């Protein structure tokens, strides 16, 4: 099982346990490779999938991942911890660091979970559900992990799956904006907790269901608020046609809803992984950073 600990317990324990781990870390790899993927109700591609549909998607996802080489993977729309582990079973050295257990939304029997898996040493990992704020109740939440890259060099990572656009757009935007407000608040707490242990770098990735340059969301500040705190957008200066993560269907046009934002790192490459439609309606995204 991963070391998944509540934030308050972690803050109480970090000073006595983390430094010993930091001093014994091996040399960092020459680069940091990260991927994020909405795996569409994994396994099965629908909430109440048949056993045959589950087996077919598991085989497709493992085949797609087997062809890749990265150090950490953020996943959205996985069913639970057990199936998150099944998803990454084809990746050598990978373990699941955190997986949520959010309740299903109204009218559904299965929840959509977020998870982080990696081959990196984790100092701590947990999940948190978004809190109700006034009339807004954002769905789901985030998975968080702190990784040790080298002595006194830490990477703090979040995987998110923000509110979809299957509703009234003004409400969807307000809900996503509230989720981001809470995320930035959590980041401030993690900066205070981890800064004494060394240099911090950050990744926030996943399915945002919006984009900073999409005209449909010109009034939305969800992703811009991350940029305002010093993050950079992984798709900066990459043409839209080269970063479509959600191909068009009969209801929605093509979109770039899957993103990675980073701070304290030097981006070397960002790309869409051409994952199979048998795996997911979303394509996985990849980002490589100098370490």
Instruction: Summarize the helix and strand pattern as letters.
Output: HEHEHEEEEEHEHEEEE
Q: What kind of sheet is the major sheet?
A: 6 strands, mixed
Helical/strand content category = alpha+beta
Q: Ranges with pLDDT <50 over ≥5 residues?
A: 1-23
Proportion of helical residues:
25-40%
Averaging pLDDT over every residue, what do you get?
91
Strand line-up across the major sheet? 3-4-2-1-12-11
The number of strands is 12
Radius of gyration over alpha carbons?
Answer: 18 Å
Tell me what portion of residues adopts beta-strand conformation.
25-35%
What general outline do the C-alpha atoms trace?
globular
Number of helices: 5
Ordered list of secondary-structure elements with their pairings:
Layout: H1 7-23, E1 31-42, H2 51-66, E2 72-78, H3 81-87, E3 95-99, E4 113-118, E5 122-129, E6 141-150, E7 153-161, H4 169-194, E8 199-207, H5 222-228, E9 232-233, E10 258-263, E11 266-273, E12 284-290
Parallel strand pairs: 1-2, 7-8
Antiparallel strand pairs: 1-12, 2-4, 3-4, 5-6, 6-7, 8-10, 9-10, 11-12
Helix pairs in contact: 4-5
